[in-house]
Amino acid sequence: xxxxxxxxxxxxxxxxxxxxxxxxxxxxxxxxxxxxxxxxxxxxxxxxxxxxxxxxxxxxxxxxxxxxxxxxxxxxxxxxxxxxxxxxxxxxxxxxxxxxxxxxxxxxxxxxxxxxxxxxxxxxxxxxxxxxxxxxxxxxxxxxxxxxxxxxxxxxxxxxxxxxxxxxxxxxxxxxxxxxxxxxxxxx
Length: 188
Description:
By secondary structure, the chain is mainly β. The chain has no helices and 16 strands. The chain has strands at 2-3, 12-15, 18-28, 36-43, 49-55, 59-62, 65-76, 79-84, 90-94, 109-115, 121-125, 129-137, 150-155, 160-164, 172-176, 181-185. Belongs to the elongation factor P family. Residues 67-122 form the Translation elongation factor P/YeiP central domain.
């Protein structure tokens, strides 16, 4: 058993007869009244995201998990195939168990979290950033821009990301996987 002081991003807990992963949390200590923890929970079975508030000191049932490195192989409809980098066993997961499937490039190594009780995969953790090639973007128009002008660009995985005007087709860019946002032009 854990308490609200143990809540952190990525923690898997049992709540309402389901297993949820904590996506966001905020400890709130108002001037009046007791402290509480506001959380955003994502169901690992359905992918549904719910908001919940736990009062301070509330006991939560955490799930013991194990992490393993897997390499992303290929998509097949809404199913994504992965290979264990240690023993080369393959598993397939549904699209809704991934946080940002549109940024997943073939060959990318991800961390998959497994429930230690039944060895069921719970969620897929992407690296903090990925490097993707821009396959289509309009040429940037100089002028009438003050600061931070962006334009839409399509990357090799099919995702659409807003990039600065100086980015052209063929450039490789670094993308934040959590927000799906442009970070910088990748150094060759």
